[in-house]
Amino acid sequence: MPDLSRRTFVQSMVGASVGAAVPIGPAFAAQAANQDGAAPEARLHWLEGDPSPIGTGSTWGVPWARGTVDPDQQFALRSSGGDAVPTQSWPLAYWPDGSVKWTAHALAADAQAAEEYVLAAGEPAEPANAVTVQENRGRVVVETGVISCTVNKRGPYVIRSISRGEREIARHVELVNLRQQKIDDGDEARADRRKLVSKVEEVTVEQSGPVRAVVRVEGVHSGPGRDWLPFTIRLYFYAGAEHVRIMHTFVFDSDGNEEFIAGLGVRFQVPMVDELYDRHIRFVGEGHGMLTEAIQPITGMRRDPGRNVRAAQVDGKRLPDPSTWDTRVTDRLHWIPAWGDYRLSQLSSEGFTVAKRTTSGHGWVPIDQGGRASGFGYVGGVSGGVGFGLRDFWQRHPTQLDVRDAQTDSAEVTVWLWSPEAPPMDTRFYHDGMGQDTYDEQLDALEITYEDYEPGFGTPYGIARTSELMLWALDATPEAERLGAMADVVRTPPQIVNEVQHLVDANVFGGLFAPVDRSTPMKAKIEDSLDFLFDFYAKQQDQRHWYGFWDYGDIMHSFDEDRSVWRYDVGGYAWDNSELSPDLWLWYSYLRSGRADIFRFAEAMTRHTGEVDVYHIGEWAGLGTRHNVQHWGDSAKQLRISTAIYRRIFYYLTADERTGDLMHELVDAEETFLVLDPIRKIREGEYEPDPRALAIGLGTDWSALAAAWFTEWERRGPQASAAERKVLGTMRTIAAMPNGLANGGTLYNMETGEFLPAEASVSGSSLGAMFGLVEICAELIDAIDMPEFEAAWLPYCRLYNASREEQEAELGGRLGTNLRQGHTRMDAYAYHRLGDATYADRAWDFFLHPRTGWEYSVDQDWSAQRNEDTLNPTDTAAWVSTNTTALYGLAAIQNLALAGDRLPD
Q1: 29 contact partners, CB below 8 Å, separation of at least 6
Q2: Considering the entire predicted model, what is its pTM?
Q3: Is-contact 334 275, C-beta < 8 A?
Q4: Backbone phi, then psi, for 213, in 5-degree steps?
């Protein structure tokens, strides 16, 4: 892989943080068709129900129906009891008529806790402790009203210092990486490790208050002779907060064969000013159980300092004056060892260990073991300290929390995203190619392992991972109850969400979902089947341990009934990598149900599939990798995996800037067709990529490009004008094709953003519409007034499941015959738009009465069998496959929304 310049990386990775810091105001001058001058209300609640006792703030998105919100509309937030709550608002997306489609809002950390809120037109309340940002040539200083954070624009530190009042609580926050140049596979390991630390190259203020501020820090990990692992860190601050939220993104810029990550973490210093016996360590394990120790313990000694003294130390309180202790203890305090180093290592999803030692050069003493640690700890004393946490701590093992030198004037804390106690991160391809040197050999091997192999293509160069951390600057050692609540916040950050009915009424995401409905026996059956499928995958994730740094968030593709395991080691049957849109199945399942467990499962998948399964730098930037034993292993690098349609829902519900980056990266993704032909192995005849006549398929290729262009356009991103031109140009020229979206081969002109005129032909691949084409077409038709494009899409919808005779009569050729159950949502869409019950009846016929044995039937046995003979006890349903699950789920959801009135009972 070629090296990539820093400038190119920054441009491709973060773009311009589309829409992040722009207030709603007259700068966006388009006028919405708002008749009564008042925006509608939106009712909001916490995703998990009750608000957290730890105020952290929250950011969320709210959709608005076309024409109901003017660009200069202000919003006020109030609790369900009617009290004004400070909020900050900004636009996320616009309808083509200029009215606001999505707004984002932020809640202050010290805002009044309420179970529900109401967002409506009005003047926003001012926060009691506003966030302020001061920027000069050398640094950025953010004040939350409680803490002050200084970010230098150059140097090794991501954060220079964090203070609370006059006290510096933390300093020198840096990224640390242990780089290893080879992996020793033998008994005698001799590999050398070299430490690299962050080198900050650019700092950008993306938002500056008054409720929320965001600072983006970019750079590389740097050491003697090597800069690598470019990173983007976002620092989030909320009004009244005593914490900093850190979003840590890095890109792996190595071929995976010659240098390896042996450790990756965030490190900082904590000034220690209290007496040794007034300094404390806390690690929260499973639940709210925790390790509570002092650096110099005075409990358990041969001589008793006094009950009140011992109780104070265990509770983390300042000890009484030593003159009040038993002198047999105070005279011998210097003989009690100070334990300066602690570590909690989570090397698997099932177990962690805790150990401590007095100082470097001396032996570690085991403390205890446990199952799944929270990822939260504290170091400091009665005068203050730092609470620190890593989200998905056990799910993304191997992880570690390290405290060193707490007996000195400055403790060092490292939150390891990859623990140095684990073997180095092994990114080597898993086999030697087995002689697959030609396309013919590779296609033949595909027939047995379903793996599309090609030498040199199984590289991780350019994949990425984003992790979420939190640092609290505290004025004292927290009590146990508060520590437990902070650990809960690390595990599951509080998230404000919309009511389901508001999402439906706003008619976003194509209007392809409706609230869960059990009003008839058949609808109840379908709802039960949908519940079974999600619950089954959630259980499989835990029972089959679909966890690990690179793996968490993905699910497996197919099951091996003979071994009673998912086919984790069989070529293209292993990790799913978004095959046939499970991302969309999960997100549409959430939109209609509001279930927190579905949201969190989909969130983890979005974090994984958008980062790990996609290339972010290098010649394949913007392409994703087809399903494989390793997420980056398959040689099929395609837009159908990286498509923005899989990220849009999470982005708009949360206003997450990193997800916005991922979608912005794809705006020029058509350029990858100049360097890699996705169908190179099966293309007939000679073909040389020509930017003015580029082969781009109308199914999986165009749908992915259209999703990226449309998202950039509606977000008014830096390339919005070009994106609008390409969206409208391709829609218009598709409409001009003889068979519309069912037309065969065509060519694209990158200079004009249009398809070239095409002769009549027919192409209806069974996969063409199953990677987001259905969903993006629904959004485009709903948003853009171009009847001729709808007329080019509806024949595809009407005819895919029609008879071959009907297809030939209208199109002059035949479409695909596979995945009919998944395609029933196109029949339902045709009914929804045309009103012809023929299509609704056919949708339900093919959905309820599948024609193949691997499609699901509503009347089948929806159950799993307990299997005690697998390595761990598991629930097994050998008939479940992820391809079928995703298509069945999407068809059920969309058919109910679009043609539920025609469901036979």
Answers
A1: 71, 98
A2: 0.95
A3: no
A4: -130, 145
CA distance 555 to 602: 11
Q: For the chain, give the mean pLDDT.
A: 94
Q: What is the distance, to the nearest Å, from the Cα of residue 63 to the centroid of all Cα atoms in its chain? A: 20
The amino acid occupying position 62 is: V
Residues 6+ apart with CB under 8 A from 861: none
159, burial (CB in 10 Å: exposed 0-12, middle 13-18, buried 19+):
buried
Q: Is the pLDDT of residue 5 over 80?
A: no
d(CA 755, CA 46): 46
**Residue 17 CB burial class (10 angstroms; 0-12, 13-18, ≥19):** buried
The rounded distance, in Å, linking the Cα atoms of 631 and 642 is 13
Residue 762's closest CA among 800, 724, 728? 800
Question: In the β-sheet with 42-46, what is the strand arrangement from edge to edge?
Answer: 84-85, 75-79, 116-121, 42-46, 496-498
CB-CB contact of 799 with 742 (8 Å): yes
CA 6 – CA 272 distance, rounded (Å): 38
Q: Give the amino acid at 335.
A: W
Strand (E) positions, 437-536?
464-474, 496-498
Residue closest to 236 by CA, chosen among 248, 224, 226, 251: 248
Using CA atoms, how far apart are residues 719 and 669, in angstroms rounded to an integer?
13
Side chain identity at residue 384, one-letter code: G
Please report, for the chain, the start and end positions of each structural domain, with discontinuous segments joined by +: 6-121
Locate 809 and state its tokens: 């009569």
Euclidean distance between CA atoms 247 and 266, whole angstroms = 11
Please tell me the distance from the alpha carbon of residue 615 to that of residue 306, in angstroms, as a whole number: 62
What is the amino acid identity at position 327? T
Candidate from 31-45, 579-593, 632-646 with smallest mean pLDDT: 31-45
DSSP codes, 525-547: HHHHHHHHHHHHHHHHHHHTT--
Q: Which two tokens stand for residue 435?
A: 């002689």
What b/e string do you get for 29-68 counting C-beta neighbours within 10 Å, with b at 16 or more? eeebebeeeebbebebbbbbeebbebbbbbbbbbbbebbb
Helix (H) / strand (E) containing 150: strand 148-152
pLDDT beyond 60 at 412:
yes
pLDDT of residue 37: 52
CB-side neighbour CA atoms (13 Å) of 539: 16
Q: Are 652 and 92 in contact (CB under 8 A)?
A: yes
Look up residue 455 and give its two tokens: 């030498």
Q: What are phi and psi of 93, to 5 degrees?
A: -160, 160
> For residue 204, what are the CA distances in angstroms to 152, 155, 213?
11, 15, 11
N residues, the chain? 905
Place 816 in a pLDDT band, splitting at 50, 70 and 90: confident
Residue with tokens 């006028």: 31
End-to-end CA distance of the chain, in Å? 58
Sign, Cα dihedral of 537, 542, 546, 549: positive
Positive or negative torsion for Cα 793, 794, 797, 803: negative
- For residue 152, give the nearest of 209, 206, 202 by alpha carbon: 202
Number of Cβ within a 10 Å radius of residue 457: 18
Which residues are within 8 A (CB) of 450 and not within 5 positions of it... i.e. 6 or more apart? 570, 571, 572, 573
CA distances from 439 to 436, 494, 682, 760, 825 (A): 8, 50, 8, 30, 36
Whether residue 19 is predicted with pLDDT greater than 90 in this model: the reply is no
The alpha carbon of residue 175 and the mean position of all alpha carbons in its chain are separated, in whole angstroms, by 21
Q: Write the CB contacts of 16 (distance below 8 Å, at least 6 apart in sequence).
A: 664, 717, 718
Residue type for 138, please? G
Residue closest to 800 by CA, chosen among 786, 810, 790, 791: 810
In whole angstroms, give the CA distance from residue 65 to residue 73: 14
Residue 58: its H or E element: strand 58-63
CA distance 5 to 233: 19
- Residues 117/215, Cβ–Cβ less than 8 Å: no
